[in-house]
């Protein structure tokens, strides 16, 4: 039984716009190809001196301002990112330094595009078990800094941004209904960024520290596995698709989302995404889509919402919440 509620949300995207027309000047691509295959029109990217911690700090400030919240008494900071400023210290520690919480734990987690929903799952568990009272969960990425802008098959996809939520103890009115997690480590080779090792399962890694993907394989995996995971999640909660007000999948690619929705019998009108104007922002894509949904007055208090993150690992998390 959950005892945790999401009480506030904020977001931030960098000012610099990278449009499809801009990409036409960088690689051999064109607006039609990008829109037809991905639904993306533009994405935001950071300047040279702007990093993931900067985006996360601005997302938290936005949350505090929008909901008149303080973070002084936050007792845990969880930042989901694959593009931290440093290997260590973590972005979460940088946030503590900025906001000066007196007594808080802080760590980054890496579950790629499923990271934000992993963070929510962990926060709900820690609050519901009585270990924590007030947790900041943030998804923040500067993927443009790990993108090879000579590789047209990846550089058109990714953008930068951050989204933050506050999860607080609330026994009377909890947000969390149900969640599922799943992993397919065998598929890790289809989407990676090399680190200390330059080999995976005996295969030489490419990209020189930038993201590398077999787009077709990732696409097939997501479109096949997300509808199955979604069904499991709904059954676990004794809900039907008709009971869901909003579906918020990871904004990897609009065509992928359309295909998942079609297979799952969910209308695109009941789906929130950030992909058209922000590209694929990995961990940040779900909170960015939620915040857009609020700004566009679609998402309301009490709505039943399914969040579904999936990505490199390969790994996924689905969560059903009451907004
Ligand atoms: N502009 C023009 N042509 C291009 C471009 C481009 N930007 N990129 C590739 N092409 C060409 C290819 O060279 C190929 O040409 P060829 O047939 O002459 O060889 C052709 O277009 C088709 O290429 P495919 O890679 O087969 O295209 P596909 O239809 O699979 O679409 C895409 C590619 C959009 C990348 C798709 O596979 C996809 O979205 N995959 C999922 C990617 C994803 O979401 N990854 C992230 C997961 S989340 C995370 O954890 C970060």
Structure in words:
- The strands form 5 sheets. A 5-stranded mixed beta sheet has the order 1-7-6-4-5, sandwiched between helices.
- It has 10 helices and 15 strands.
- It is 32% helix and 25% strand.
- It is globular.
- Helix 3 crosses helix 4 (91-99) and helix 7 (215-236) packs parallel to helix 8 (254-264).
- The two termini are 17 Å apart.
- The chain is α+β, with helices and mostly antiparallel strands.
- Strand 14 and strand 15 form a beta hairpin.
- The structure holds acetyl coenzyme *A (ACO).
- The site of acetyl coenzyme *A has 22 residues, from helix 2, helix 6 and helix 7.
- One of its GO terms (cellular component) is cytoplasm.
- The active site is at 113, 250, 280.
- It is an enzyme of class 2 (transferase).
- It is found in: Cytoplasm.
- Pathway: Lipid metabolism; fatty acid biosynthesis.
Shape type: globular
* C-alpha termini separation: 17 Å
Helical fraction: 25-40%
Gyration radius (Cα, Å) is 18 Å
Q: How big a fraction of the residues is strand?
A: 15-25%
Query: What is the string of helix and strand elements?
Result: EEHHEHEHEHEHEEEEEEHEHHHEE
Number of helices: 10
What oligomeric state best describes the polypeptide chains here? Answer: single chain
| Main sheet: strands, sense, barrel | 5 strands, mixed
Strand order of the largest sheet: 1-7-6-4-5
Each distinct ligand:
acetyl coenzyme *A
Q: Label the structural class.
A: alpha+beta
Low-confidence runs: none
Report the mean per-residue pLDDT as an integer: 97
How many strands appear in the DSSP assignment? 15
Organism: Alteribacillus bidgolensis
InterPro entries: ACP_syn_III_C, ACP_syn_III_N, FabH, Thiolase-like
EC number: 2.3.1.180
GO biological process, one term: fatty acid biosynthetic process
